[in-house]
Amino acid sequence: MSQEQKIRLQKILADCGVASRRKAEELIAQKQVKVNGRVAQVGDKADPKRDHITVAGQKIETSNRQKHYYILLHKPRGYVSTMSDERGRKCVAELVEDVPARVYPVGRLDRESEGLLLMTNDGNFANTISHPSRHVSKTYRVTVRPSITEEQLVQFQVGMDIDGKKTAPADVRVISQEPNRVVLEIVLHEGRNRQIRKMCEQLGLEVARLRRTAIGPVKLGMVQQGQWRELTNEEVKRLMASAKPAARRR
After folding, report:
1. Distance between CA atoms of 128 and 150, rounded to whole angstroms?
2. pLDDT tens track for 173-212
3. Which residues contact 26 (CB under 8 A, 6 or more apart)?
4. What is the DSSP letter of 77?
5. Are 162 and 192 in contact (CB under 8 A)?
């Protein structure tokens, strides 16, 4: 295989279910990846059929393409969206141990939040759904205290400055309202870290509960906390269709 025909290492690792492409790039940058005994660099390519590739000393089996799994997990509070944690916290990996492949999270859901988390061993799917340029919508049910004003609702809709950058307009509606408690549905079209919590904090609202109920057209439905199910082929297709770049949408 000529150099032009070789494949970027991060794509090989993603296709083998090691990690998403972005995480694979981090592993390469951390010098955990070797090709034929040589420490790899970001941007390196390899021949998955001939080259000996290791990650943290473990050989990666590249000869047989893995079956791809697309998992919808109902993440409970108290779990971090990683496969391992140096601080000993509970990880979502513990909840998908019975999946017949090593799957990893598509994006993140912070420790104190709950709800829909996608997991997969398909690097192309993970990269497409989580890439910032794709603007796949994410829907949340958020309980805030003490109450909310029309002006605060407008701030969600027009955007606000968070960490030095204005947020994209969000869709928001009041689901229910009672003394000292309001339940909102918020739809984000970008994926910034802890975005809803930071927006609420800026508006002086306390987040009592935050649950993600949908990603694009796929809904959490009746899956119980800590449980998972496989996405249907139709759901995978609809998710990928929803991740087309904005310029190509009609």
Report:
1. 36
2. 999 999 999 999 999 998 788 999 999 999 999 999 999 9
3. none
4. T
5. yes
In one-letter notation, the amino acid at residue 196 is: I
**Number of continuous H segments (helices) and E segments (strands) in the chain:** 6, 17
CB 170, CB 187: distance < 8 Å? yes
Q: Is 236 helix (H, G, I), strand (E, B) or coil?
A: helix
92 and 80 in contact (C-beta within 8 Å)? yes
Q: Is-catalytic flag, 44?
A: no
| CA 245 – CA 128 distance, rounded (Å) | 10
Q: How many other β-carbons are positioned within 10 Å of the β-carbon of residue 78? A: 10
**Is the Cβ–Cβ distance between 57 and 110 less than 8 Å?**
no
Give the Cα separation of 154 and 11 in Å (integer): 42
Q: Catalytic pick from 15, 98, 110, 122? A: 110
Taking the chain, what is the end-to-end CA distance rounded to the nearest angstrom? 40
pTM recorded for the entire structure: 0.76
Whole-number average pLDDT of the chain: 90
SS3 string, 11-59, reads HHHHHCCCCCHHHHHHHHHCCCEEECCEECCCCCEECCCCCCEEECCEE
